């Protein structure tokens, strides 16, 4: 059986006047119908990895890979038309902040219906019905009312649920969620994660969760990749944070203040240039 | 008991008029002793930042009284208030003037308060936050996030305040940088006998830095507790308990489990 996603030796480079910046430096992994977490600090290349998979790398960035395949389709060789038709229908992405990623001058309903009809030939009425059902699935209590609202009328948690609804209405097989909860309160965060978790389980999707929050990702995902300076430095099984070997991962865990057993001063992460090699 | 440094009684802040009035703060009272550290926690919209804005006069008080060192604080605030109370903001990418050098940024409070020997004060302030004099003539865009937050802290400390108001000082920073800034804040507190009021949504950060904390919800104080109670889980209200549970990471509890906190679907 072919895995849902195969990534082998993926590089993302940005040629700039001051020289080339290599944001992602040769990472490889495969994804089945599972929850995979990618964790790293700012600049580690985690978001660029997600964008490269979808083909959303900003210009003048260049993506190279020995193999980048989605459900057996070679994405590196695929024409832009094919990638565009895959994007949004079979593979999709949830962005960080609903305040910036939803169109401020369209109602929630219009946006969800637009993304549905871009990929499915259905009547307006059917699209509306599907949108309502999808909003209900992400536990929006009065979908009728929410459909007519504009993004600024939504709370952060609702906005994020609307975005998830918009991305999942086409029934994708791969969902990349880039910091889906970091703009949200801790209490709402749990709720959004629970919705994601349930939808992924019910639909048998593959999920890549990108985040800087190691503890959250480790408690949510089946597997966690830790990225540093564009490379994967460690792969961890879910809930096995205490078995982390790499000094970077251990340093990241150590430098968080903890409710149980706090230490003063906090241990500080000392970076070894060898990690980036 | 010695006079508290800050005494806030029945603070209330309202925004809007008539039917649209929103009580951003409703009857919030607390005291802060010299050298003490108080945490304010709550969800977004709970009014935790409004407390700091009301203290500094950035949000108008519609009720209640405020005393600094036993003396009533007038509105608008006088100069001597700001020599005693300074603030560090959440996002160091937004709180530093992009076209001012570090030197200009740090010189401004000194010029406003007519404090002489600016140059030696600036170099000393940079040293206090762990940056060398070479950073003096850089622009904010030439600094990392952690270095910028250090500059923002230096700007607050250069007037030798007694109280520093910290509005989510580390939430825009990476975990490893957060640890450095938290350590710096602890060292500075010890060195200068500072009192802190820390606003944060991260319970672990609040418990790390503060002995005492207030939980706010929709502008009201719903619980006053201690870092110790947070650590051993002996908090009184369900709401705080739910926040505590949510901060522990994701727990898979089966598809029909109720959410940990009431849905805010309005």
UniProtKB/TrEMBL annotation, chain A:
Keywords: ATP-binding, Cell membrane, Membrane, Nucleotide-binding, Transport
Sequence ranges assigned to domain ABC transporter in this UniProt record: 5-254
Major localisation: membrane
Domain of life, per lineage: Bacteria
Family: Belongs to the ABC transporter superfamily.
Topology in the lipid bilayer: Peripheral membrane protein
CC per GO annotation: plasma membrane
Protein name per UniProt: Peptide/nickel transport system ATP-binding protein
GO biological process terms held by the UniProt record: transmembrane transport
SMART domains: AAA (SM00382)
Signal peptide: none
UniProt-listed SUPFAM superfamilies: P-loop containing nucleoside triphosphate hydrolases (SSF52540)
From TrEMBL, chain B:
Keyword flag Translocase: yes
SUPFAM superfamilies: P-loop containing nucleoside triphosphate hydrolases
EC code: 7.4.2.10
Keywords: ATP-binding, Cell inner membrane, Cell membrane, Membrane, Nucleotide-binding, Translocase, Transport
A Pfam family matched in the record: ABC_tran
Predominant location: membrane
Reactions performed catalytically: glutathione(out) + ATP + H2O = glutathione(in) + ADP + phosphate + H(+)
Gene Ontology BP terms: transmembrane transport
ABC transporter domain span: 6-243
GO cellular component, one term: plasma membrane
Subcellular location(s) per record: Cell inner membrane; Membrane
Membrane topology: Peripheral membrane protein
Keyword Membrane attached: yes
Gene Ontology molecular function: ATP binding; ATP hydrolysis activity
Oligomeric and partner information: The complex is composed of two ATP-binding proteins (GsiA), two transmembrane proteins (GsiC and GsiD) and a solute-binding protein (GsiB).
Family: Belongs to the ABC transporter superfamily. Glutathione importer (TC 3.A.1.5.11) family.
Free-text function comment from the UniProt entry: Part of the ABC transporter complex GsiABCD involved in glutathione import. Responsible for energy coupling to the transport system.
Alphabetized PANTHER family for the sequence: GLUTATHIONE IMPORT ATP-BINDING PROTEIN GSIA, TRANSPORT ATP-BINDING PROTEIN
Name of the protein: Glutathione import ATP-binding protein GsiA
Organism from which the protein derives: Kaistia soli DSM 19436
């Amino acid at each position: 059986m072919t895995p849902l996603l195969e990534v082998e030796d993926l590089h993302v480079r940005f040629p700039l006047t001051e020289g080339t910046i290599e944001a992602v430096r040769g990472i490889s992994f495969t994804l089945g119908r599972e929850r995979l977490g990618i964790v790293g600090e700012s600049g580690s290349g985690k978001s660029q990895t997600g964008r490269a998979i979808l083909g959303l790398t900003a210009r003048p960035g260049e993506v190279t890979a020995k193999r980048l395949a989605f459900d057996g389709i070679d994405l590196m060789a695929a024409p832009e038309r094919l990638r565009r038709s895959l994007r949004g229908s079979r593979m999709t992405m949830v962005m960080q902040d609903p305040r910036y990623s939803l169109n401020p001058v369209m109602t929630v309903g219009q946006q969800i219906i637009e993304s549905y009809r871009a990929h499915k030939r259905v009547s307006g009425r059917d699209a509306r019905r599907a949108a309502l059902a999808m909003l209900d699935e992400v536990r929006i209590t009065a979908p009728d009312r929410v459909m007519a609202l504009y993004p600024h009328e939504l709370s952060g948690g609702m906005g994020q649920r609307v975005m998830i609804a918009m991305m999942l209405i086409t029934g994708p097989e791969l969902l990349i969620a880039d910091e889906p909860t970091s703009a949200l309160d801790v209490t709402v965060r749990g709720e959004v994660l629970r919705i994601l978790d349930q939808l992924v389980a019910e639909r048998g999707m593959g999920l890549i969760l990108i985040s800087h929050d190691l503890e959250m990702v480790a408690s949510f995902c089946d597997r966690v990749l830790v990225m540093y300076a564009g490379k994967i430095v460690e792969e961890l099984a879910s809930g096995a944070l205490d078995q982390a070997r790499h000094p970077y991962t251990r340093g990241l865990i150590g430098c968080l203040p903890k409710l149980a057993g706090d230490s003063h001063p906090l241990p500080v992460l000392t970076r070894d240039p060898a990690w980036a090699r | 008991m010695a006079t508290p440094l800050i005494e806030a009684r029945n603070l209330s802040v309202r925004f809007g008029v008539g039917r649209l009035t929103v009580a951003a703060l409703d009857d919030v009272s607390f005291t802060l002793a010299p050298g003490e550290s108080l945490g304010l926690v709550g969800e977004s919209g709970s009014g935790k930042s409004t407390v700091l804005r009301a203290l500094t006069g950035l949000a108008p008080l519609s009720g209640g009284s405020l005393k600094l060192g036993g003396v009533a604080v007038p509105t608008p605030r006088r100069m001597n208030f700001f020599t005693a109370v300074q603030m560090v903001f959440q996002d160091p990418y937004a709180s530093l003037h992009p076209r001012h050098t570090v030197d200009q940024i740090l010189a401004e409070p000194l010029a406003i308060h007519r404090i002489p020997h600016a140059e030696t004060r600036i170099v000393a302030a940079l040293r206090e936050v762990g940056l060398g004099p070479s950073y003096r003539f850089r622009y904010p865009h030439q600094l990392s996030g952690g270095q910028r937050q250090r500059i923002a802290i230096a700007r607050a400390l250069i007037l030798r305040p007694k109280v520093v108001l910290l509005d989510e000082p580390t939430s825009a920073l990476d975990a490893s940088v957060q640890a450095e800034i938290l350590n710096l804040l602890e060292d500075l507190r010890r060195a200068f006998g500072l009192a802190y009021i820390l606003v944060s949504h991260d319970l672990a950060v609040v418990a790390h830095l503060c002995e005492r904390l207030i939980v706010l919800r929709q502008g009201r104080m719903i619980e006053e507790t201690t870092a110790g109670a947070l650590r051993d889980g002996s908090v009184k209200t369900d709401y705080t308990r739910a926040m505590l549970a949510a901060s522990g990471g994701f727990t898979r509890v089966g598809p029909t489990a109720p959410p940990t906190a009431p849905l805010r679907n309005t």
